[in-house]
Specification:
single chain; 2 domains; Rossmann fold; 6-stranded antiparallel beta sheet; 254 residues
Amino acid sequence: MVKKKLSFVASSAYVAQNSLHVLENMYGSVPLEKADIIVALGGDGFMLETLHNTQHLKIPVYGMNRGTVGFLMNAYSEADLHQRLEEAEEAVIHPLRMVAECADGSRFEALAINEVSLLRHGPQAAKLRISVDGKVRLQELVCDGALVCTPAGSTAYNYSAHGPILPIGAEILALTAMSAFRPRRWRGALLPMSARVRIDVLEADKRPVSAVADAKNAQEVLSVEIFSAPDVEHRILFDPGHGLDERLIREQFA
């Protein structure tokens, strides 16, 4: 077995920082640019941050859970790390691209591995018009918000909003409403990965809306376009039998 050059990164949490110190002493650590594999120590939020920050390096990321849920992470262990990495399975995922037009005339672009969400930013419900591939599909949705998620992100905010869990290889996006008021029972739609979704904010002055791509936030948006970014890929490593496919199926029987 040829040992890979590892670069360890960790969240600011005490347990993650302590594990960082232990693992660097055991296995050594090289700068990110010289690594074969990045080992991220933290929770799902830190994993998303690491994937965004290192996407230009095209290096696979292996996460170990030093956070809470850890859906994108592997179990933490200090033993036999090189063996685990040698046997790990790789999942390649593509993010969503968000392009938002804001009330001040600015344009905000960001990538989202999990989801792009539009949320009301005031006491009144948002009013949204939803178009898919240039055709209006829902003239008016009155709601707390709406989101578009990838299969990898379908168990996160989307699932909490009662959206469907998507198989990782389904080539499908989920469009899900949060607390829809009109149409009262509209629960969302499944769209092909190639779909281009546009959401226009109606009565934006009276009913302001913010847009969030993972943790990147745009305020007082007038419209948001959401579409897959196949030119960007993230490589995530999982222990055998614990990849995204298995996790997404297991989540549905929890």
